[in-house]
Amino acid sequence: MKAIRLRTPGGLDHLDLVELPDPGRPGPGEIRVRIHASSLNFHDLGVVSGAMPAADGRIPMSDGAGVVEAVGEGVDEFAVGDTVVSTFFPHWEDGEAPIADFSTTPGDGVDGYACEVVVRPAIAFTRAPHGYSHAQAATLTTAGLTAWRALVYNGGLKAGDSVLVLGTGGVSIFALQFAKAMGASVIATSSSDEKLEHARALGASYTINYRSEVQWASRVLDFTGGRGVDHVIEVGGPGTLPQSIQACRIGGHIALIGVLTGGAGPVPTAALMKRQQRLQGLIVGNRRQQTELVRALEATGIVPVIDRSFALEAIADAFRLQQTGGHFGKICLEF
Q1: Are the C-beta atoms of 157 and 282 separated by less than 8 Å?
Q2: Chain-centroid distance, C-alpha 328
Q3: Where are the domains of the chain?
Q4: Residues linked to residue 15 through DSSP beta bridges, in sequence order
Q5: pLDDT digits (tens, 9 = 90+) for 20-44
Q6: Contact call for residues 234 and 261 (beta carbons, < 8 A)
C-alpha cells in the first residue's frame, strides 16, 4: 500500500511516498479501513515541520476517513461497506480527559492516516455522517469536534448567545457554522477582507479586519453594546488572549484552543479575574462527543467548508498552502 513517512528531523522535504506491506486482516475487536481522505490541522503541521518531533518514519496525519473493508471477531458496531471517520484520542471513549499529551494520537505518538489502509481497534473510529464525502468526514476528527466541544459541551451554547471566532481556519469556521445553526450570532475576525466576505456569506453578523482594526476588542464591544460576547473561540494564544478577555462579557467563556502566536506568554490574570470569566483549555474531545456531533450534523445539514484538496503524494504542497494562511476552512488530502 502507498503511505507517507516522515524522516527525522522533520520538514516538508522529509515527507516520502513509500510502498508498505498490506496490514492484513483485522484481529478481535479491530476493523480494516480503506482510507480515502485526511485533513490538515495545525497539530499535523507541527509534526511534519519538526516543531513537534515524532519518531523517524512516522506516518503523519491525525484525521482519517474511509470505508470498512473487514471486521474482526466481536465487532458489531460496524459492517463491511460502512463509511467511518477516525478519532483523535483512540482510547478516550467518554468522560473527562484522561490524557494530557499526544502519545496515543495518530500521526504523532503512533502512525496516522497518510496511508491507504489501516487495521485499528474499532473504538478508533465512529461512523461518518450520512451523505458526507470522505474529505468532508475527515474534517471532523480534529477541527469539527474541537469546535463542537468548545461551544456545546464546555460552553453550553444556546440560542441568543453571541460568539467571537478568531480567524477563518477550520476550527473557527466550524464554530461559526455551529453557532448559527443553534441560533447564536457570530463576530468573525481575519486579516483578509475577502475571507471576511466569505464569513458573512456563512452567516457572520459582524466582521473585523484585525490588521486595519488593531484594537479589535473595542469593535467587538461596539457591536455588542458594550457587553461583550458570551463565547470566544481563542486560537491565537498569548498574542490575542488579552483582547479576547476584553471582548468577552463579564462571566463569559473563553475556549483556549490554539497557540498560533506562541506556546507561552503573559496572561492578564487580574483582568480575567475581575471580569469573572472562565478560560478553559481543550484538545479535541472524546468518542461519545464525536458520535453526537455526527448526529447533529445529520440533523442540521451543516456541510464542512473545504478550501482545496490534494493527492496523497502532494502532501507537502498541501502543507505549504497551510503555511501561507491563504486557505478558508479546511485543506484535505484525497486518495
Answers
A1: no
A2: 13
A3: 2-139+304-334, 144-281
A4: 6
A5: 999 999 999 999 999 999 999 999 9
A6: no
Q: Is the pLDDT of residue 309 over 90?
A: yes
Contact 60, 6 (CB under 8 A): yes
Q: Which residue has the cell 474482526?
A: 72
Domain 144-281 has CATH 3.40.50.720: yes
pLDDT in tens, 125-175: 999 999 999 999 999 999 999 999 999 999 999 999 999 999 999 999 999
The answer on pLDDT for 95 being more than 90 is yes
Look at strands 248-256 and 278-281 and give their pairing: parallel
Measured distance CA(95)–CA(312) in Å, rounded: 35
Sign of the CA dihedral running 323, 325, 327, 331: positive
CA-to-CA separations, 54 to 9, 127, 181, 193, 266, in angstroms, rounded? 8, 28, 38, 37, 29
Please list the residues that pair with 4 across neighbouring strands: 17
C-alpha separations of 314 from 13, 18, 93, 327, 335 in Å: 11, 13, 33, 16, 10
d(CA 229, CA 249): 5
pLDDT at residue 261 in the model: 84
pTM of the model: 0.96
Q: Which CATH number fits domain 2-139+304-334: 1.10.645.10, 3.10.20.600, 3.40.50.300, 3.90.180.10?
A: 3.90.180.10
* Helix, strand or coil, per DSSP, at residue 40: coil
Contact 42, 331 (CB under 8 A): no
